[in-house]
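Dear Dr. H.,

I hope your travels went smoothly. While you were away I took the liberty of generating a structure for the chain from your last submission, since the lab meeting agenda had it listed for discussion. I wanted you to have the full record in hand beforehand rather than looking at slides cold. The sequence, exactly as received, is reproduced here:
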Amino acid sequence: MHKEDQPLIFELTKPGRIGYSLPEMDIPEVDMSEMLPEEYVRVEEADLPEVSELDIMRHYTALSKRNHGVDSGFYPLGSCTMKYNPKINENVARFNGFAHVHPLQDESSVQGAMELMYDLQEHLKEITGMDEVTLQPAAGAHGEWTGLMMIRAYHEANGDTNRTKVIVPDSAHGTNPASATVAGFETVTVKSNEHGLVDLEDLKRVVGDDTAALMLTNPNTLGLFEENILEMAEIIHGAGGKLYYDGANLNAVLSKARPGDMGFDVVHLNLHKTFTGPHGGGGPGSGPVGVKADLIPYLPKPVLVKKDDVFTFDYDRPDSIGRVKPYYGNFGINVRAYTYIRTMGPDGLKAVTEYAVLNANYMMRRLSSAYDLPFDRHCKHEFVLSGKRQKKLGVRTLDIAKRLLDFGYHPPTIYFPLNVEECIMIEPTETESKETLDSFIDAMLQIVREAEENPEIVQEAPHTTVIGRLDETLAARKPVLKYVKQ
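The corresponding predicted structure, in token form, is as follows:
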């Protein structure tokens, strides 16, 4: 039994109990040995629990209460923009004309869905300052890879096959070097300066005729705006490279600044973050990619176009990098993002940025007396603290994160970016009220007092969750991934 004394489903099993009802089979039974190799054919009944429907409902309802999400509590996960998902988005995504269409239907029967996709592309072009957009990529990292593959195709088409390196800052999201590697590039790290921004002199040192691109998010992962972005773009373009915008932090500049105006050639967006599509638990996501004019020929095909007021998919793209996802993207998430953009409007999207920045700076200033503040300047949508002061008392950043669970909060991002010791990265988003922010701040301040007066309570946290403190090394090396009968 665990803390709540809630029996596991296998512990409730009683022979003969049935929790489901299936219709009579109306097709002939098939000898599976004729279809599959013998070693893959089950010869014994699966050892499944035998429980009633009521037991099943209570079991899964109890499990759902143990999950944390934006509908159940504050989720200040830095760089992940876990903000409220308006329920109007869910309602629209469930309209019959959207929820029940099939990707193999004839184009003439899905013109409404295609018009929504086309209009969404047009909105995203305007928001980012790009010349064309594809909705195909399934998430942010997928968008990164797609953008890099287009950059690679562009250089190869120009005979620039020696451009094998992608520059990433030392504060970059981990997906940046990973995507570059998967796309066939080598990665080169550019250092941050004492202000937490890209060091221009180091950038000049590492850039060269082998540079394919610089990957950058602005504001960066420290929550700081790269104020020298135009000079950085000039350095990269002067060397013949392309500038890639990691759109993870677009929530900080939405409708205030456009990547295209900063000099970026490619941008990916996280519709499941900035534009309120639900995410977490592996998806679904949506990572559209926008490009400047010289990269349009390399967009994934098919490309959604409008001809004489009719929407169609254009497959005749000889320079395309090819299809990057079956069909045309995660349509349901795209519907949610489109609904969000249309309901917010230009003024509403501008207010998103204003409140996100206001909330982050308010929290940062209230917490800066109790935690170390590595970069004492105005932040954008998120900010970084350091738990170095608490570490000297024997309380690590990990302990602080665990203790926050006892207050009902999802912990912020910790130990990232890697260039800040004992890093605590907090993103409150614009959708949280001042009362919520104040409650979280009070919890963070109480943990500081506990670290000073009673560090054991923090070191042994969490105390109120179903599962207590785990042996993390053992859990990583020898995870128990299935139920084992005792």
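Two observations you may find useful: The CA atoms of residues 70 and 84 lie 6 Å apart. The domain at 354-476 is CATH 3.90.1150.10 (Aspartate Aminotransferase, domain 1).

With kind regards,
E. W.
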